[in-house]
Amino acid sequence: MRRLLLVLAMLTLPGAAWAQSSSVILATTTSTQDSGLLDVLVPMFEKKTGLTVKTISVGTGQALALAARGEADVTLAHAPSIERKYVEEGKLLNRRLVMYNDFVIIGPANDPARIKGLASAVEAMKRISASRSRFVSRGDKSGTHALELDLWRQAGLAPEGAWYIESGQGMGQTLGIADDRRAYTLADRGTWLAFQKRVSLPVLVEKDKPLLNLYSVMEVNPANGPRVNSAGGKAFADFMLAPETQAVIKTFGADRYGQPLFVPIAGKTDADF
């Protein structure tokens, strides 16, 4: 009887739900899923820890919102300004940089807006708008969408009209729509490389500083909900920063695409960029 009472008491303690859980819910962006990186890293983590990962791949805004509601245990995202807001509110904990790649503006080879080779992404957006050339936006409150909106703001524009198409989809689907419509779009380089066999749109603008794409891992505050597996979430976050994981990230994609899709940056901070 005393043993039964002890077990019942443990189950009512904060964190008891995660203590009994062998699964970790990862809320992450479609770009990490579409690039194929998680197909490599998740099995590594599961083999190392014995935990099972359930991945929810959505736009960064949705991924962060899920975590803030306690519907995930850890999140891997790429929208620094939104991430910092959640950390300041105490919804997410221990934000750490994991890796980066960059965004590129791609579009039809005949380039009706004449943006090819421009050094400024903002100037490219101005030309796309001025020429009313088709542009496909993710329109999904993702990290990519947030950056796109920031570029429009810097250009002093609020895009609208038939030329501006909101897909409401992830990066892979948006690339497909842009390819079908022979339109411009903003994409992370990793997903663009992963979809090269399906998408014929070339990179037209790249390597401007605003196009840097930082990815961070954050643990979910157990106070967000009774089912948060904070131990499992921390284990996954630590795994993403571990030397062996960073070594895999450093070379991931090089054999298939001729260049790695991401650059590992464990230990660095926003100030380094």
Architecture overview:
The chain has helices spanning 2-12, 16-19, 30-34, 37-49, 60-68, 80-88, 121-131, 143-154, 171-181, 189-194, 230-241, 243-251, 254-257; strands spanning 23-29, 52-58, 74-77, 92-106, 135-137, 164-166, 184-188, 203-205, 212-220, 263-264. It is built from 13 helices and ten strands. The termini are far apart. Helix 8 (143-154) links the parallel strand 5 and strand 6. The chain has 273 residues and is α/β, with parallel strands linked by helices. The radius of gyration is 20 Å and the shape is globular. Strands 1, 2, 3, 4, 5, 6, 7, 8, 9 and 10 form a ten-stranded mixed β-sheet that branches.
General form: globular
- What is the number of strand segments? 10
What is the number of helical segments per DSSP (H or I, 4+ residues)?
13
Cα distance spanning the termini: 59 Å
Structural class, by secondary structure, is: alpha/beta
Helicity range of the residues? Answer: 40-55%
Arithmetic mean of pLDDT: 91
Percent of sequence in beta strands:
15-25%
User: For the report, how would you describe the main beta sheet?
Assistant: 10 strands, mixed
Rg over alpha carbons: 20 Å
Oligomer: single chain
Q: Which spans of ≥5 residues are poorly predicted at pLDDT below 50?
A: 1-20
Series of H and E elements? HHEHHEHEHEHEHEHEHEEHHHE
